[in-house]
Amino acid sequence: MDDKSLQQSIIDELDFDPSINAAHIGVAVDRGIVTLSGHVHSYMEKLSVEAAVRRVKGVRGIAADISVRHPSDKKIADDEIAKRAVDILNWSIHVPADSIQVTVENGWVTLAGDVDWQYQKIGAADAVQGLSGVAGVTNNIVIRPRVPPGSAEPEIMEALRRQAATDPCQVRVVLHDGGRISLYGSVPNWHEWDAAEQAAWSIPGVTSVDNKLTIG
Fold this sequence. Notes:
Layout: H1 3-16, E1 25-30, E2 33-40, H2 43-55, E3 61-68, H3 78-91, E4 100-105, E5 108-115, H4 118-128, E6 136-139, E7 142-143, H5 152-163, E8 171-175, E9 180-187, H6 190-201, E10 208-211, E11 214-215
Parallel strand pairs: 2-3, 5-6, 5-7, 9-10, 9-11
Antiparallel strand pairs: 1-2, 4-5, 8-9
C-alpha cells in the first residue's frame, strides 16, 4: 500500500471510531511511518487514537505528537487527581496493596514502586489513565520478580503457536542476565508483534522485554 492510500485508511479508521473526535488530528505518512499531530480532550482519547492507527494494515511505526487539552471547565487540581489515583489503585485487583506511589504535576501522573509482574505495572497505569484531568502518565514502576526466569525460549515459542499465526521460527529469543529478554525477527502485523511481546512477559522472572521485531 502506498503512503497516500495508507493515510486515507488511517483517517477513515479514526473517523469510524466513536471514541475519537478526529477533527483536530493530523495524519502524515512516510514509507509506512505515521506521524500524528494535533490535540484531543483526554489522555484516554489519545491512547484510543494510537490504538486505532495500529489497527490499520500497512502501518510500520507511529510518532504521536498529540497534546491533551482538557476543556477549561473540567480542569481538576493536582491534589484531587492524586487522591483519586490512590483510591482507584487501592481498589484495583491487579495492583498489590500499598506498592505504588503517585505524584501529580500539572495533570501529569507519575507512578513509582515495585511489583512482581508486567501485568501489574500495566494495570496500575490503566487504572489511572482514564481519570478526569489526567494529561498523561509516566510509569516508573520497577518489576522485581521473586523468582529467576526459566528456559524462556521454548515457553515463548509454545505461546506463539497458541496465540498467533506467526511461524515461531521467524522469532529469535535471547535471554540476558537479570531476567531481560530480547526478541528479534519479523512478524506480519502489530497483533502478532504484541502477541510475541506478551508471551515473553508471561514468563515468570522476566524484568524487561526489548521487542526488536520488525513488521512486514
